[in-house]
Amino acid sequence: MKLSRIALAGGVAASTVLLIAGPAAAHVSVQPVGEAAKGGYATINFKVPNERDQASTVKLEVSFPADHPLSSVTPQAVPGWDIKVDKSKLDKPIESHGRKITEAVSKVTWTADDSEIAPGFFQQFPVSVGALPEDADQLVFKAIQTYDNKEVVRWIEEPTEGGEEPDSPAPVLKLTAAADDHHGGGAADDAKEGDDHKAADTAASAKETHAAASSSSSDTTARTLGIIGIVIGVAGVAFGVLAGRRRSA
């Protein structure tokens, strides 16, 4: 009987831990597809789980960091969702590919049209972004999740280094070391560049070979014509000598 009570208490405690840990683990987050290198471009996914048993998620609003404005923000179309992109003027213009950028995306909103995130499911919202800042290790995006029962959950609390995770943490994108090409292409671009160099070398070699062959052919033709000329000349001299002898006879 005593053991049963202990087991029951342990089960209740474990259930309590799961109930507490569950909501904290299931929050709006952001992850890159591959890497998000400083100074480069990346595709990132905002992952939105449904935390409610009796309601569906019908709206997501993501605010982009104002302290590190991004010159390029392009959402990917998501079937069943309308997308709205809001821009705002920058206090300080930024340079991007030789152009001065005076405004940047401040917020992207996804609103369910003929779709929704039902209980027990999640949805990803992809966005292409860049150029990522070179002077930051992470970007913090504040998100607001709205359910069809009008409930609003604000994922806006910024985590602190070494501190505990907030109850409603904001999505955080970790940035990796800068890539050499600043486009995340890395090995693929290097391989392509190598192939281009090989192709150029091959073409140059072929051109040199063709030129050498042409030169050799020209020399051979000239020598052949020269020999033919000599033979004709010798034959002409011999014919003249024979003709002279006949006349003398």
TrEMBL record:
Residues 201-218 have a biased composition (Low complexity). Gene3D superfamilies: Uncharacterised protein YcnI-like PF07987, DUF1775. This is YcnI family protein. Residues 1-26 form the signal peptide. Pfam families: DUF1775. It comes from Streptomyces parvus. The keyword Glycosyltransferase does not apply. The keyword Cytoplasm does not apply. The lineage of its organism: Bacteria, Bacillati, Actinomycetota, Actinomycetes, Kitasatosporales. Residues 180-218 are annotated as: Disordered. Keywords: Membrane, Signal, Transmembrane, Transmembrane helix.
